[in-house]
Amino acid sequence: RGAVGFMDSHAARRLMAGGAHARREWWTDEHAQEVAFQALAGAYGAIALVALVQLFRIQFRVPEYGWTTQKVFHLLNFVCAGVRAGVFSVRRSLDNIRPEVVADVLMDVPGLLFFTTYTLLVLFWAEIYHQARSLPTGGLRPTFVAVNSLVYVFQGALWVWSGTEPHERGTLHKVSSLFLATVCCFAAAGFVLYGGRLFAMLRRFPIESKGRRKKLREVGCVTVVCTTCFVARAGMVAYSVFREKSGALDVMNHPVRNIVYYAACEIVPSALVLFILRKLPPRTPPAPRAEDGSQYHNIS
């Protein structure tokens, strides 16, 4: 019985070791990785399609207004999600690209576009708030352009440095990640500042109406979603820098971690914001007609 017990315990240990080995093999299984990347590509493709459809709906609704902030916002959403979808559809091939900095550019550019897309929303709210409070608005757009230009120039300098000094790529990747985390913190602060101000201003608005209540919910929900998204991204990216082995992002051998990261930081927030901001602008009333049938047009 002692020999049998020894054999049973030995067999149990072998089974446990085999199970652990199988679990490790699951993370590195090429099929699982491919399914995860194609799922991300499909999700981003759906976001891009929704943004493009909404852009066309707005254009057909008010074609005379040109490129409004709302139209540019949906265009940037389409470009950002479309690039992500294309990159993830060929994600397994990126690690074989030479020079390696090209893969870094393809993975980083959509994140920068995401930042620009949602800071444009902060700009829109800031302009509304400043106009409502009779505050100057002349410096808002230049500030938006300057901040985004600084972000792209700094990140572009890191790409150039990484391309010319490949042995520094690991260190520069950490610098890039910490820079992204810092940028996300500033974006979250922008949503808290102007989303909170606009929300408080709408709450103090003296006239109670259905439109006011809807706008209040819209501003409140978008502020919460975007602030949470950028704070979560900053935390996850910073954690990946200091815990490189256990928390690395954009890695081939952990498909679930990739899904959680991109779903929490880009896919779900984008889907929620597009749903919340789905309302179309009101149609422009036709200009009055003269007796001869011609239309009057405002001078302004």
Descriptive labels:
about 300 residues; mainly alpha; 10 helices
Choose one word for the global shape.
globular
Output the structural class. mainly alpha
Number of strands: 0
Low-confidence stretches: 2-7, 294-300
- Element order: H for helix, E for strand: HHHHHHHHHH
User: Helicity range of the residues?
Assistant: over 70%
Characterize the biggest β-sheet.
Answer: none
End-to-end distance = 100 Å
Percent range for β-strand residues: under 5%
Nearest-angstrom radius of gyration? 25 Å
Q: Let me know the average pLDDT.
A: 82
Given the structure, what is the number of helices?
10
What does this structure look like?
- The protein has 300 residues and is mainly α.
- It is built from ten helices and no strands.
- The protein has helices spanning 2-28, 30-61, 69-89, 91-94, 101-132, 140-164, 169-203, 210-242, 244-247, 255-276.
- Helix 5 (101-132) packs parallel to helix 7 (169-203).
- The model is unreliable at 2-7 and 294-300 (pLDDT under 50).
